[in-house]
Every structure is written in C-alpha cells, then in structure tokens.
Amino acid sequence: MSFKLNNRFKSIMGFVLVVGLFFAVPTMASQDTVAVDTTTSVAAAADVVDSATTAAVTDTTVAAASSSPTVTAAKAAVEEVKEVDPQVYKNMIYYILLFLIICTVVAVIGKVISIYELTTKMNGKYNKLAGNNFQATLLLVFLVVFLYGVYWSYANHGAMAWRDAATEHGAEIDTMFIITTVITTLVLVLTHILLFVFSFKYRMREDKRAYYYPHNNTIEKIWTIVPAIVLTILVIFGFLTWRSITNVPEDLQKSAIQVEVLGEQFQWNVRYAGADGVIGKRNYKLTTPTNPYGIDFKDKTSWDDIQGSDIVLPVGKSVRFHIVSKDIIHSFYIPDFRVQINAVPGMTNYFQFTPTVTTEEMREKMNDPKYDFVMLCAKICGSGHYNMQKKVVVVSEEEYKEWLTTQNKYFSEDLQKEYANTPATEEVNKSASLN
Amino acid sequence: MSSTVISHDAAHHDSHGHHQESFLSKYIFSMDHKMIAKQFLITGIIMAVFAMVLSILFRIQLAWPDKEFPLLEVFLGKWAEGGRIKPDFFLSLVTIHGTIMVFFVLTAGLSGTFSNLLIPYQIGARDMASPLMNMLSYWSFLIACIVMVASFFIESGPASAGWTIYPPLSAVPTSISGSGLGQTLWLVSMTFFIVSQVMGGVNYISTILNMRTEGMDLWKMPLTIWALFLTAIVGLLSFPVLVSAVVLLIFDRSFGTSFYLSDLVVQGQILPNEGGSPILFQHLFWFLGHPEVYIVVMPALGLTSEVISTNSRKPIFGYHAMVYSLIGITVLSFIVWGHHMFVTGMNPFLGGVFMITTLIIAVPSAVKGFNYLATLWRGNIRFTPAMMFAIGLVSFFISGGLTGLFLGNATLDINLHDTYFVVAHFHLVMGSASIFGMLCGVYHWYPKMFGRMMNAKLGYLHFWLTFLGAYLVFFPMHFMGIDGVPRRYYAFTEFPFMEKWVSVNVLVTWAAIVAGLGQLAFIYNFFSSIWFGKKATQNPWNSNTLEWTTPVEHIHGNWPGEIPAVHRWPYDYSKPGAEQDFIPQTVPFSETMSSNMPHDFEGNEEAERIQEEWNAKNK
C-alpha cells in the first residue's frame, strides 16, 4: 500500500518535471531573442542564422495560424519575434512557474493528508467516513455562501442592472418580470436549502440504513400539479400581455407616428414618414451610391420622407416602427423601452409603443446628466456588431416638431435633378432588372 | 442469432489468448462497444479542452478590452495583431466554442460515450446491434472534429456567424470573412457529425429494443437506459432536419439558389437572390436546435439518476414518474422550437402558442428536480466525486431551469432575447448541468471503463473548482442581460451604460481561468489513473445494475459465460429485511425471501402464495 502511494507521488513529481521541461523551451527561445535584439546592431552574418533559428521556433505556430506562403510567414515571424518584448516571455514563465508551484503545494497537501490517514489507520483510529463528513460539511458551507452570494448579487448587480421601463408596455413587462423573479427566487432558495441540507443531514453513517421509499403517488401528484398551476397563471398573463403588445388594432396602427429603421453593416438609418404620414416605398434594387437607402422616388409619398440623424420621439405618443434590413439580420433593441424585434432582409417587422419618460426626466432620475436612451443591435451581424448604435431621444411634442424641421429630406436636390432628367431610362432599367 | 455466435466466441476468450488482437484492431478500428465508448470519451475530452481554451481567449478580450497581450500574437498571428484579438476572430472563437461544446462534447462526447458503454452493459447484451456501424459512427465523428479544427488553419478563418449560423450572415462571404471557406468546412463537418449521430442513434435504439437479456423488460431498465433510449429517438428524428437545413444552405452558398436569401444589398453590392426567407432557416435549425438541448441534457439526467440513487443507497424516488417525465420532455421537445424566434418577426400568435408549449415542458422538468430531492431525503449518502457532480447537476438544473421561465415567456423575452441573460441561462441549465452529468458519469463508470479507480481527492478538488467557478462565471451574467447587454459583443467599451460591467467581466474571466486550470486536475487524474490508478474491484460502488456483474478485465462479449437473467428493478437499495443495502438485478426473489414485498411480484399469484407461506413459517 505504502509503495503504491509512493509510486503515485513519484509519478506526480515526474509529471511536474515533464511539464516544467516542456515549458522550459520558450525560456530558451526568449533568451535567444534577447541575444538577437542586442546584437542585431552589429549585423554579423551569424546573427542572421541565429535569428532564423529563433524564427523557426515561433514559425511553427505562426505559419500554422496563417496559410500564407512559408517564405512570407518566416519573414513575418522574424519581424514579430523582434516586436515581442522579451519581458512577455518572462512573464509567461513566471505565471507558469507560479502555477507549477501551486500544483506542487496541492500535491504536498494531498500527500500530507494521505500520510495522516495512514497514521490514523496504523493507530486504529481511522474513521472511514471522515472524508465523507468533510464533503458534507463543505456542501453545507457552500449553501450559506451561495445564499449570501445570491443576495449580494441581487443587491449589487441587481441595482446596477435595473432601470424602470420608459414605455407604457414596458411597465407591464416589468411587473411580470418582478412577479416571475419573486417566484423563481423563492423556488431557487427553497430547493437549494433542501438539496444541501438533505445532503448534509443524511450523509452516510456507519450504523444506518437509508429509508426504502420508492414512490408516493400523492406527493408526486402535488408537485406535478402545483408547478402546472403556477405556470398556467404565468402563461395566461404572459399570453395576454404578449397579444396586447403585438396585436395593435388597425386604427391605432394608422394613427401612430410612422418611423422606418433600416439596419445595415454597421449602422442604422432612420426614416420619418414626413408630412403625409406615409412612408414611401423602398426597393432594394434601386440602391445606388446617391440613393443608398434604395427609396423608390417614383412613389410620391416618399418625397417628403425625412432622414433622422437620431431617433427622436415625442413623449406620450404612440410610435409605430417599421423595421427592415438592407443586408443581413440585425436586431432593433432599445433596452430602456423593453423593445426588441429583428430586422430581417426581405420582410418588414413592426413594433408599436409609447414612450412615457423624456430623456431629461430620465437623466434626473438616474442623476446622470449625460444619460441617453440607446438603440443597439442584438443579433450577431459581423465585426462591427458591438458598436452599431443610434441615440434615442424622447422630448416634448413641440421639441419633436421643431427637431423634425431641422432634418434633411431623403429626396435631396441632387436626386430631384437626377430624377427630373432621367425618368425614361429609369423605367427601362427597372423593367430590365425585373426580367 | 448473432448473440449465440458471439457467446461462443466469448467462451473461447475466457480461456485466454485464442486469437491475438493487433494494436489496430483493438485500439483504432475497434468494433467493441467498450473501446468505442473510450474513443468517444477521449475525443470528447480533447475537444472540450480545445473549446475551453477558445472560451478563455474571448473571456480575456472581454475582461481587458484595451490591454495588449503580445503573447496572443505569437500564437494567433494576424488574428491578434498587436496582441489584441480582432472582432472577426472574436466571433469565430464564440462560434466554434459553441459548436464544439454543444455538438462534439455534449452530444457525441456525452451520449456517444455512455450510450456505447452502458447500453450493452446495462441491458445485458454482448455488444451493439451493429458493431460495424458503431465503428463508422465514431469515425464520422472523428472526421467531423478534424474538419472543424482544420478550419483554424485557413486564410479566411473559421466560421464566425454564431453556432446557429443564421443566414444571410453565414451565406454571404462578403458580410464576414468567416463565411468563406471556414463556413464551408463548418457545414461539411456538421454533415459528417450528423451521419455519425444517425448511425449511432439507429444502433442504440435497435440494441435497446431487441437485445435486452432475459427478464429485462422495459420497466426494469435503469433510468440511464431510458434516458439514452429517448435521447437517441430525439436525435434520430431531429438531426435529419438539420441536414436539410445545412444542404439548402450549401446550395445557397455555392449554387446560387435562394432558399434563405432575398432583397440583399451587402457592402453596396445588390445580390441577385430573390424570394427566399431567412426565417425558414431558423425554423429548420431550431427544429433540431431545441430538441438538441434535450439531447444534451437527458443523458446527463439519466446518469445522475443512477448515481444519486446508488450513492444515496436509496431507490430513485418515483421511477415511473421519472420515466414519464422523460417521455414528456421527449414529445414536447419537438413542439417548442419557436421560443427561440419570438422576436424574429414570426407571426406573433404563433409565438403565443410556442410560449404555452414551452412552459408546459417545465412541468416534467420540475418533477425530475423534486424527485432528485426526494431521493436524497432520508438517504445514507456517500459523497463519491461522482455524487458531488450529480448534486452539482441538480443545483445547476434548478438554477438554470428557473430562468427558463423568463425566456419561455414571450413577453419577458422581448427584453432578454439575445442578451447575456440567455448566455447565463443556457450555460447553467444545458452547459454546466450536462458537463457535470458527463463528469459524474466519468467518475462513476471509470472503474468499468479502465479497470482502475480515479483519485478521489483530486476529484473533490476538481469538483469544487468547477462548481464554484461555474457559478461565479455565469451568475453575474444574468444581471448584464437584465441591463440589456447583448451577447456576442466584442467589447463593452462603446456604450456608456455597459462600462460598469467591465469590472464584473474581470471577475468572470478570472473565475473562468481558475476553473479552466482546475480542469487540469481532472485531465491529469483521468490519464494517469489509466496506468497508475488503484485497481478496481468488480463492483466498487455496491451497485445493482448489470454492468457490475461483468469481470473487471474487458473481454469480448462482456460476460464470460451465459448472460445473466434479470429478476428485479435496478433500485433495490436499503430494502428492509435484506442482508446488504443493495440487491443486484440478477438476484432472484427466491434468494431474498426476507425482503420481498407484495408489489414485487407484479400480480404473479403463484409467487405471492409462496411468499405468504414463507412469511407464515418465518414469523
């Protein structure tokens, strides 16, 4: 038995040694680099050979990463090796050494425990279940830490995360969110108390046997039906609210302010309906450098369409957003408004809501004079996904109307001239493309 | 018939060395279910480590978005120029991390390993119904892995449209560099993977239905087998739909069709595609994608049911309820996929319907959770490392499952969709819970796989590092999501409201790094125990199921003589009146007269009469 343990100890140390040797290779490489760096000024032929060999060390990784021809890769590698500060390698070695030391400490502690167990065995005081009790106690300690952690996280992270919704439907969502949070937190806490207290209380005892209790249909029925009832209530409220948000009556749809938002990599374009309250047609085939939005200016309702620099909305007015995409799927997401719908190429999605809090009021509430509502992209759309935003400003109705007058029309003078000159060719073009 | 042939063969093996297996036929092109299980497991572990390293890389970027790590450039070259990971490559990391973890680790690594190992063992079969197909299943899986990893070695980089590969992003190479050759390789890899899954699934189902030993009726099967059986059915019905989605996407990408594409102006270029719909792809994808999460979690639930029962020394509470809830989950899993698409512009009424089905599926899941707790109640619990991981799974299954009530509710999903709340939810309920199920299985069945024991102390260390690490990593993410931070963001620096989360990200990244290093305890334990572990006894956990009646040394055909017959259910632990606190399934009732109960005989009057006579005599 003792031989076995000894053997395992050796194998651990051997493993540590092998790992150490493995990581020792970069040490040499880094030393070489230092040599190269200090002696390149001499520019001796030997140095070229030297740097080539160091390059070869790193080359394998670099060449593997980029499939460019090896010659250029090697050149690049030489440059990169020179760029990397040798301190970087040293730091890495320190970290690895630190980790190995921790491993060794852990191995030593493990050994000490084994030796302790062996001595207790020799003294005849060995308690087979000591380890079991220890783990059971740890689980109980974990329960306390976990519950406190949940509380701490709710209090701190929760405070960081939570802002009341700034829209009418958002307030309903918030109520439902809080009800769901209360129910789930209650279940989370109770089940975890049961899980870990049971684990601790019913840890293995030498003289005890478990209670043979294969099933109890009554209890099982209860805990099938109770969650079912709770879920039914949540479903009914969720369903009704969902319908009220998504199923807006037609007259309200028409009376709302109409705004179209077009997503593209990686920006949002905003189009207000203008004086006639109707958004002009858009045809992606008409996209040109002068008309990047692809607006069909033969549709006269498009002539007064306004280009919004930001999304500016009057407080307390229902706004109907038409969400479209120029290239790939984006997601129109305004966290403060509890609004999200995807922008999908080839179809239009709608989201209608009523903002209830102006930006000014929000700033006062947040006690942050720079706070802004923001609309962002929530669907992976490429390298600029993380920075695809548009400011959303909620103002009073007068300010909104005033702002609208300051914005440009999509049908700019240049475009007007273009269209006045070439209506016939445009017609031909269109029919050609349709064919 | 085949079983008689093999049994003849097995009898020969008993007398040792009749025909020598070559290295190739024993370890590489093996058709033995035990060896294939080990192949799946070790490949799965390697892929898990790979995917974990990817996750550490992108966690580093999230925690220190403005810092330079020259070392990254040494290893990653142009993808980390100046020591900072590029946005494109960040998305690749996220994509491949998700793909590998979901498909290669938690599907193939988990159900591939344990279906192969446990199905023949626990139902009493010599091997799988088709050993050849079983081998091909592993080899297709391996090819899939190699192709996926190979995509890191091409000029344009690996796929980067997210593991859900929504077109048009994944279909139009000009929209992101990863959608070039990298995406093609992704699709090729996935096709091989599905081939592997289908071959495996057919095999598992036919083995379970046809090759159970005498007495092993469906209601005597361990819950592991039930879970693996239902998982295989779900996989067999849903994976082919992913093939169709993948094939249509290949057509769109390579042959100019327009199944998913319409009205596109990408980078100023008007594309000719017309008439398709990206939503179609999402329907096809999630028709697999949602059952997939149950494919991932059901085997984990099956394994832990067995482990919790064995180590509580107590029958699993509500065996029938456990089976019915698994069946319920299986059926419902096919009609809930729309809850991934509440805000995609799918008809809102349809969204409402999907919301109802989604919340119904929470009921069987809740029943399972409660049954676990009831199993622990008044048990005699032995905390083996496997048991620790099983308890961890229950914790994750509850804490992650509860947030499903938010996301399954279409109204609340509006604000939480595609945020970190989703990341936290599925990493707990599907990621961590399944990984814990898998690790629980590895610790528990390691003696069966390798004939040696793993080091328990390292196991505990591994458990605590992983358990605490997982909660520290994923719990704070809920709050980022509530605040409205979308997932797959390269940096939180561009929005004033996100800046407060960078400090939390540092905590999360450190927790991830420590938990990641903690896995070395497992890797070392796993591989060194293959050679240096303590020799295992035949039934180290005093377990009831059939696999522990086989000899420690693996032999072809599993049992040296006849396959044992089964007389009872697998959960007779701590039965009152029995000599020991466990009665293996192979022990007939005639040998346990003192502990038999009336319902054991399932209405067999003759047996009841004999028992009554015995009871009268021994009063």
From TrEMBL, chain B:
Subcellular location: Membrane
Entry keyword annotation includes Repeat: no
Bias-annotated ranges (Basic and acidic residues): 599-619
Membrane topology annotation: Multi-pass membrane protein
Membrane spanning residue stretches: 40-62, 89-114, 135-154, 185-205, 225-251, 284-304, 316-337, 349-374, 386-408, 420-446, 458-481, 501-527
Ranges where the record places region Disordered: 598-619
GO MF: cytochrome-c oxidase activity; heme binding
A Pfam family this chain is assigned to: COX1
InterPro entries, sorted: Cyt_c_oxase-like_su1_dom, Cyt_c_oxase-like_su1_sf, Cyt_C_Oxase_1, Cyt_c_Oxase_su1_BS
Claim: Iron is one of the keywords in the record: yes
PROSITE patterns (UniProt xref): COX1, COX1_CUB
Family as reported in the entry's similarity comment: Belongs to the heme-copper respiratory oxidase family.
PANTHER family: CYTOCHROME C OXIDASE SUBUNIT 1
Name of this protein: Cbb3-type cytochrome c oxidase subunit I
